[in-house]
Sequence to fold (138 residues):
Amino acid sequence: MHYDTLKSILKAGGASLTQPRKIIFDLMLNQGPQSMQVLVRRAKDKVDRATVYRTIELFERLGIVRRLNIGWKYKIELTDAFSGHHHHMYCTNCGRVFDLPDNPMLETMIDTVAAKSGFSPRGHQLEVYGLCANCSKA
Ligand SMILES: [Zn+2]
Ligand SMILES: [Zn+2]
Fold:
């Protein structure tokens, strides 16, 4: 079912589902945010570095993956179409990324607040940064 979505997004963007694209997509499915370094390492022997970068660039342009900026670095993950809507918490000390626990009230509240300004929200991004439980102990 994820492949159908992937195929139709690619098709709409004038691209097709090639083997390297499928491999890279598989490496991101059901995974948390990954750095390009990690992704390149995991794709090794199957897809070369340049192809990984090119594919991620294409995926990003078509809205298949999104880039999460963490300080001066970034990680990538699949967009809401594949991973479900969620938010992240970043630790500015160790660089780890955590999922913010789901909270329907928070989701509704963002839409309600936007609607009060006459805005029709289609989506949002929300990022929390600070120190993780581990780092705030130290
Ligand atoms: Zn930390
Ligand atoms: Zn949300």
